[in-house]
Design a protein that fits this description.
Largest sheet: none
Strand content: under 5%
CATH architecture: Orthogonal Bundle
CATH class: Mainly Alpha
Helix content: over 70%
Shape: globular
Number of strands: 0
Structural class: mainly alpha
CATH topology: Hydantoin permease
Distance between the termini: 47 Å
Bound molecules: 4-fluoro-L-phenylalanine
Radius of gyration: 21 Å
Length: 464
């Protein structure tokens, strides 16, 4: 058994970049635009901005401060705080990334497949003529989804083995700026396509007729914000544990929220105008816009194909961007799992990476084969991947609410606020923080939980 020296980020910027890289992922590029289109464009965007600057900021500060105070990953962090009855929170917030990681890697594998398909297209080959058939035959293929997941997982684990400073930091330093430049590039290009104005208006102008129930909009935005900011998954606790004492937790949190929200809103500018134009041209109406989860893998390739040869290049750049976003998010999740296993068993990092990698391949196989060779295995009537996703959507708000209750009523907010002042700066949001963490956050988070349970059991038409 070896006790290695705890890693730390090389600076405040490295931390902000890493946490933003975790936050910016498939949630921003694919989920945010389709939710915005579904929930009245500007209405959803406004609600989302408000929620992330209040609730998102509060939860982010809480998790990062918990990590930095304890200098432990989520599994053992709660033990340092002196309330043994609440140690179970560490276990719960470790279970979440351990169960999300395997199926996130499966979806990462899908992105690898599309990336490869566009590489073939730009080099003159064919293969994506019928996106619907391409997607369906790929996910049902005997080995393809597993092999793509394996590739994605191996790259992620390689970065983690190299370490926090040399692996994660460097990978983010390369991928994040490229991602941002590509996203801005595509959004600007899309804005110059004749007819794009209609789609931009559709995206930005509030449309109250499509959001008959404001409660649903708020819950949709809140669920999205959780996922997008990687909250309640132990990641921000683990990343916070590598943060230097001289760096400011609130400043870093504001920057992370800003970066994540910026990329989410930008994704809408990349995707919505082209989908709206495609819907008008193909007579697909709202169905193309409301394609939901199928948007990224079926509708968008159709839209890119309709743009001719420029579309092939946009598709290629888009899937490089998605691949980078998925990789940096998977890296953060793998790190949260690896750090928890290291801290708990006090084993070497490399051993821990191997254990997490094997776990994620074994459990990932269940999701990867879930639409093909193991399609008969349907827990609660759902394909394995969707079952894991639904279970985690329920567990995440439970953990978030419990963390708020613990910090607000047991640990006390002043411990978090004291951690925020460690770098010597004054904290001007004390009253706001106390009210948010004690009252507002637990109530709002429990509301998401109730709506998620209603959605799963089909109660009251609360599908989001
Ligand atoms: N925040 C990421 C996104 O928006 O895609 C998703 C994510 C990353 C979820 C890391 C969970 C996680 F642990």
């Amino acid at each position: 058994m070896t006790k290695e020296k705890r890693a730390s980020w090389s600076g405040s910027l490295a931390f902000v970049l890493a946490a933003s890289a975790s936050a910016v992922g498939l949630g921003n590029l694919w989920r945010f635009p389709y939710l915005a289109a579904k929930y009245g464009g500007g209405v959803f965007i406004a609600v989302y901005l408000l929620l992330s600057l209040t609730l998102g900021f509060t939860l982010l500060v809480t998790e990062i401060a918990l990590g930095r105070y304890s200098r432990q990953s989520q599994l053992t962090a709660f033990r340092q705080l002196g309330h043994p009855r609440w140690n179970f929170l560490g276990v719960l917030s470790t279970i979440i990334p351990l169960f999300i990681l395997p199926y996130y890697n499966v979806i990462g594998g899908w992105v690898v497949k599309y990336f490869a398909a566009y590489v073939k297209l730009v080099s003159g080959g064919g293969g994506l003529d019928n996106p619907q058939a391409f997607f369906e035959s790929f996910i049902a293929a005997p080995w393809d989804p597993f092999v793509c997941m394996l590739l994605f997982t191996v790259v992620t684990c390689a970065v983690i083995i190299i370490g926090v400073k040399n692996g994660i930091e460097k990978a983010n330093l390369v991928m994040m700026p490229i991602l941002l430049v590509m996203a801005v590039g595509i959004a600007v290009y899309v804005a110059t396509i004749p007819g794009a104005g209609e789609g931009i208006r559709f995206y930005l102008v509030p449309d109250f007729s499509t959001c008959d129930n404001i409660g649903k909009v708020v819950l949709g935005a809140m669920g999205q914000m959780f996922y997008s900011l990687s909250l309640a998954m132990g990641i921000m606790i683990t990343y916070g544990s590598y943060m230097r004492r001289c760096d400011s937790v609130p400043k870093a949190s504001v920057r992370i929220v800003a970066a994540d929200t910026f990329v989410a809103v930008l994704s809408g500018f990349m995707i919505i105008p082209v989908v709206v134009m495609f819907a008008a041209a193909s007579g697909g109406g709202r169905a193309a816009i409301d394609a939901g989860p199928g948007l990224m893998f079926v509708t968008l390739p159709k839209v890119f194909a309709s743009l001719g040869s420029a579309g092939i290049w946009i598709g290629f750049v888009f899937f490089v961007l998605v691949l980078f976003a998925a990789l940096t998010s998977a890296i953060s999740m793998t790190e949260a799992c690896v750090a928890a296993v290291c801290d708990f068993f006090r084993i070497r990092r490399v051993t821990s990476v191997v254990l997490v990698c094997v776990w994620s391949l074994l459990l990932g196989a269940v999701s990867a084969f879930g639409y093909g060779r193991w399609a008969d295995f349907k827990p609660c009537g759902l394909p394995a991947l969707e079952f894991f996703d639904a279970s985690m959507n329920v567990l995440t708000p439970v953990v978030a609410a419990l963390i708020c209750i613990y910090v607000g009523w047991v640990l006390r907010p002043k411990r978090i606020l004291a951690e925020c002042q460690r770098d010597g700066s004054a904290v001007g949001f004390k009253v706001f923080y106390v009210v948010m963490v004690k009252f507002v956050a637990p109530v709002l988070v429990l509301a998401i939980l109730v709506s998620e349970v209603c959605r799963i059991f089909g109660i009251g038409g609360w599908a989001i």
